[in-house]
Amino acid sequence: MATSAKSQREAVDGVLLLNKPAGLSSNQALQRVRRMLNAKKAGHTGSLDPAATGMLPLCFGEATKVCAFLLNADKTYRVSAKLGISTDTGDGEGNETGHAPVPGMDPEDWDAILQSFRGKSLQVPPMYSALKKDGKRLYELARKGQSVEREPRPIRIDEIELLEMSGTRLVFRVRCSKGTYVRSLVEDIAARAGTVAHTARLHRETVGSFDESTMLDMTAAEALVEDGGDALRARLLPPDLALAEFPAVGVDSAGVEDFRMGKLVAIEVSPEQGLARVYGPGGEEEFLGVGELAANGTVAPKRVFLPGLKKSPNN
């Protein structure tokens, strides 16, 4: 019996920060890189619309265990908005639904409007989104011409910076919490200025503690594969880098096996309660997983990583 291509895939562990090109869905981008690496297990976190570009963390092997934590991470976007025209999808892919004059305001006025969105607020998700209503994806209903009531969801805008204002072009950078729909934010900004708008371009610059300096373009990834499979694998980041915002704690050699068996482990210093990166006596070379810190000086395993993970040669 012939061995299937799936069974011939290899165990590959690590995170690749892809600069997703426009025109690919997040899953299409993932599968393309997965084939390059010939990886058995893969997942992505923080989906980008096909028209959007920028940071898409691709997780392979043991690193897929950090996907859930990256979903909760803050993100930074560079946003280009087209003022005066609204669309049904909130971006340039949709059909025009309205026009309105653009007020002749100076950059200081626009910046004041942007700054008014800082902090916590409630946002109504767009109809063209993957959220479900009565078991149906909202975008499925929207494509049928249906519009349903959506519950406002809490979001947080930490930073928002005006980069350019020229005619009907508004460009800004925003650092926001998970669950923030930039397309809705653009529409809300325009409404506050007395006009309409849609998102013309969207580029994600950061996810959590990852910044643009570690991203790899698809063409660069393909070039590395041509140089040999190991060249692309050398660009994989260790999974604990995705958790850099969590405090790090260590356990002694006796605690390593207990942690891997799902047992509570005593630690010398508990910096705070909450999630933490847990390491063995080998320090950064011995990442054990994610644990829940308790006030009594113990850590409870939440996500255990298999032994044998090594730092990338480039890290």
Task: Describe the fold and architecture.
The chain is 21% helix and 33% strand. The chain has 315 residues and is of the alpha+beta class. The chain folds into three domains: 14-72 and 210-238, Pseudouridine synthase, CATH 3.30.2350; 75-199, Pseudouridine synthase; 246-304, Roll (Archaeosine Trna-guanine Transglycosylase, Chain: A, domain 4), CATH 2.30.130. The strands form four sheets. Strands 1, 2, 3, 4, 7, 10, 11, 12 and 13 form a nine-stranded mixed β-sheet that branches. A five-stranded mixed β-sheet has the order 14-16-17-18-15. Helix 1 runs parallel beside helix 6.
Question: Secondary-structure blueprint of this entry?
Answer:
Blueprint: E1 14-20, H1 26-37, E2 42-44, E3 53-60, H2 67-71, E4 75-83, E5 85-87, E6 96-99, H3 107-115, E7 119-123, E8 132-133, E9 136-137, H4 138-143, E10 153-166, E11 169-176, H5 182-193, E12 197-207, E13 216-217, H6 218-226, H7 229-233, E14 248-250, H8 253-260, E15 265-266, E16 274-279, E17 287-293, E18 298-304
Parallel strand pairs: 1-13, 3-12, 14-16
Antiparallel strand pairs: 1-3, 2-3, 4-11, 4-12, 5-6, 7-10, 8-9, 10-11, 15-18, 16-17, 17-18
Helix pairs in contact: 1-6
